[in-house]
Amino acid sequence: MTHLKLIKSPVEIKLTDFTLNGDPILFQRRILSEISDIFLDHQAAGMLPADTIVYTVQSWLPVPEGTTGGLFYGTSTVMPGKVGNEYFMTKGHSHAKSDRAEFYWGIQGQGILMLMDRQRNTWGEEVFPGSLHYIGSNIAHRLVNISDENLIVGACWPSDAGHNYEEIAKYGFSARLIEIDGKPILVPDNKK
Ligand code: M6P
Ligand code: ZN
């Protein structure tokens, strides 16, 4: 019974390193060997250690997955690095319930949030500490680290959004973020 009680939330963000502390927290680690297919240069991917951590995600799911009206919170950390000339990035996804939106915000490091609409138009938003990103419905999204430090990004999304990874796994985004002359450039790459 919490009536008239002053209580603490079960989860806190540790502001020195932005990790989530509390219970329950879900921790995911994506290593290169599991996600090497997302990168263009498979030979370059094969030259890096298979257990290289590309990114981690900490999430607080306060209600069961699929609940209507709830929210989830997550912190993604994309490591610095490249596969060939392509920066380390997340798998990327659209939402299984495709009309569900999401907020991302930059916490640490420099990156690009790649966004792609249903017509496969792809663009990028610059991510930096304090940047805020509204990812509308029907927009696929992927984070790319373009700096030489960890890219840390917060996220908040509806608990019934779900993840659709299949389309991105099959067709990719219609562009890749490649380093050319020391700068990140979106280069067309259409498999559809
Ligand atoms: C954010 C949210 C999560 C997502 C995570 C990693 O924290 O968007 O829903 O799972 O980033 O991204 P991905 O699922 O594309 O690997
Ligand atoms: Zn999402």
Walkthrough of the structure:
The chain is mainly β. It has a single domain, classed as Jelly Rolls (Sandwich), CATH 2.60.120.10. 8% of the residues lie in helices and 42% in strands. It contains 3 helices and 15 strands. A 6-stranded antiparallel β-sheet has the order 3-4-5-13-8-11. A 3-stranded antiparallel β-sheet has the order 10-9-12, with no helix packed on it. A two-stranded antiparallel sheet has the order 1-2. The protein is globular, with a radius of gyration of 17 Å. The chain starts with 10 loop residues before the first strand and ends with a strand. The mean pLDDT is 97. Bound molecules: 6-O-phosphono-alpha-D-mannopyranose and zinc ion.
Instruction: Give a short account of the largest sheet.
Output: 6 strands, antiparallel
What percent of the residues sit in helical stretches (DSSP H or I)? under 10%
Q: Strand tally, please? A: 15
Q: What is the C-level CATH assignment?
A: Mainly Beta
Low-confidence runs: none
Strand residues, percent: 35-45%
Strand and helix order: EEEHHEEEEEEEEEEHEE
Task: Give the second-level CATH assignment, the architecture.
Answer: Sandwich
SS content category: mainly beta
Number of domains: 1
Evaluate the radius of gyration: 17 Å
Give me a quick take on this structure.
It contains three helices and 15 strands.
